[in-house]
Amino acid sequence: MSFIVGLTGQSGAGKTTICEFLSDAGFGIINCDDVARECTGKGSDCNKALSRVFPSCFDKELSINRKGISEIIFSDKDKLKEFDDIVYPFINRLIDERVKELSYKYNVIVLDAPTLFEAGADKKCDAIIGVVAKKSIRLERITARDGITQELALKRFRSQQSAKFFKEHCDFIIENNDMPQDAKKKTEIIINKIKERSNG
What is the pLDDT of residues 134-181, one digit of tens each? Predict the structure, then answer.
């Protein structure tokens, strides 16, 4: 059975960069955002369930208005919980399928999952890496990357776990406030430790 690593952290902390380093090390990657997008594809069972709770965010073909639903769920914690409770079971089932497929090829599989803990996917992991960064740096990165306002970015931040949470719940922490070379060195140390652990 493959050794499963969770990769999670704060929005804008640079998790994608860390994921690239893990991929370069020969680890299999499951992008859980892609899994979520697949689960919420046009006409999916997940969308049918969501449309009953968020009807204004779907058209007749059950395509989701991602921007519209983001504005609703990141402004209201109760709505976010409703959304999560519907979506996460679908995501977890698909993650299990992907792990099974990749386990024939990779000794180490990474679940690249911003909401690893919220989805309960942390329970699938043998080790967890958390990526954190200063708020000002994250804000700059995420507004440039996603083309969203600072206000929406801050709403997203408020809906997520704090750096303290990740430091308390992850096996490894990468503070990604500096240059990519610095993040690479930190990641390489962790990669070596994971290889040791996965080889028993």
Answer: 999 989 888 888 888 888 888 888 878 899 999 999 999 999 998 888
In single-letter form, the type of residue at position 35 comes to V
* Number of domain units in the chain: 1
So what's the pLDDT on residue 200?
Answer: 72
List the CATH number of the domain containing 82: 3.40.50.300
The domain containing residue 183 runs over which residues? 3-198
